[in-house]
TrEMBL record:
Lineage: Bacteria, Bacillati, Bacillota, Bacilli, Bacillales
Protein name, per record: YokU family protein
Stored InterPro entries: CHP03829_YokU, Znf_MqsA-type
Listed NCBIfam families: YgiT_finger (TIGR03831), YokU_near_AblA (TIGR03829)
Organism: Halalkalibacter okhensis
One Pfam match: YokU
């Protein structure tokens, strides 16, 4: 797969740990086992725009005060939403 950073065809799908600031800015959390890519050429680890948007939307739509310091990606996505949709995304 083509790397979004160096544009070489060396990127492979991985699961990794990322750190995300909550929408209210009060703290950051660790999200483990997050889908992503790693490039063997440049060494960059990154998430697709789709995964980034999923995380951002989920964190905006759930009660983040109930989150621990660390959560698995799948567990995060299963958290009950306070709203059905992110009405602020254009």
């Amino acid at each position: 797969m083509r790397c979004e950073w160096c544009e070489q065809h060396e990127a492979e799908r991985i699961r990794c740990t990322v750190y995300w600031e909550l929408p209210d800015g009060t703290r950051a959390i660790e999200i483990t086992d997050t889908p992503g890519f790693e490039c063997e050429n440049c060494g960059m680890e990154y998430q697709s725009e789709e995964v980034i948007q999923e995380i951002e939307d989920q964190l905006l739509l759930i009660n983040t005060t109930k989150l621990e310091k660390s959560i698995n990606y799948e567990e995060l996505m299963k958290q009950p939403r306070l709203l059905k949709y992110n009405y602020f995304r254009f």
